[in-house]
Specification:
heterodimer; A: 235 residues; mainly beta; nine-stranded antiparallel sheet; seven-stranded mixed sheet; 1 helix; 16 strands; 49% strand; B: 82 residues; 44% strand; globular
Chain lengths: 235, 82
Amino acid sequence: MNDPKVVRGSNMIASIKVSGTYYPVFCAKSCSFEMTNEIINRTGVNDGLFTKRRIRRTEWSGSASGVLVTNNDGNRYSPFYLMQESVRRSTMEWQFEFTNLDGDIRTIEGEALIQNLPISGDVQSFVQCTVNIIGTGAFTMDESPSSPTADENVDSDYWVTIAGGTSIQGLSVYGKSLQGKEILAIAREGTVYDPITTGSPSNRTALFNSALGRITFDSNIPFNPGETVWAMWKD
Amino acid sequence: MTLSKTYYPLATLYSITDANLAYCKMLLVARSGVEFNVDTTGLNEGGGNYCLYTPSTGTITFYDQQPFLDNESINIVYDTNP
């Protein structure tokens, strides 16, 4: 495969945090991470013949397996260390690191408990060990880009108002129009307003009409001389 | 995708949690009209115009000594694909 963004199995590493540093767990040959959503029904009386569902809780788990080693060093930690921590009922910080062929790294980190730790010895081979963990609490992922962002033409500008008026429409100071746009944020003299698209604006709400490209404020709070209205929108 | 939402939180609370905000990039957070700086490290939890964003849970936490009052609103503009 020529795609440089793929991750080979050898570049997925399970590590535990000890004294602030992550160390790979023993001489692992394979590891896994799994996230599971609990799906529950939410079918209502008006939902017809098909079942509707939603996600309730999310949980995660992982495992690592490989050859047993007896010592801890800068490159790995022994299953015996994990066993000690397990008996102590300790929560440990785990990290799953994924490195693609370009060298980009993404990590998943979270606290987990050791559920079981089987060790097996074969007279013809090395002693094999597996550690299975279950996450406690949320995992965190780093925030590096996951995919290119489509250009939504997010833009912003401001309008000079007419004293006594309560709405703006037409072109902004830099010649932009709100017609046909989706509003993201509205501010009047630096105060951010709650955008609404139906009903009547009152107090700190502002009514946006996309078809007309118009923002209307509470009629009881007309513009003062020199007021400006700022908006952020996208296509 | 850039989206915006307005929340009307319960008085006495000081944070909002929404799964839709998980792992997003916060572009604008305003509380009752006032724009807040977004912190993800927790270093600025002490107040001022800072709020703490926790990506793993989609939580925005404000200063606990300044809980929401009645009729407050939170405006958020966020990018779902940071």
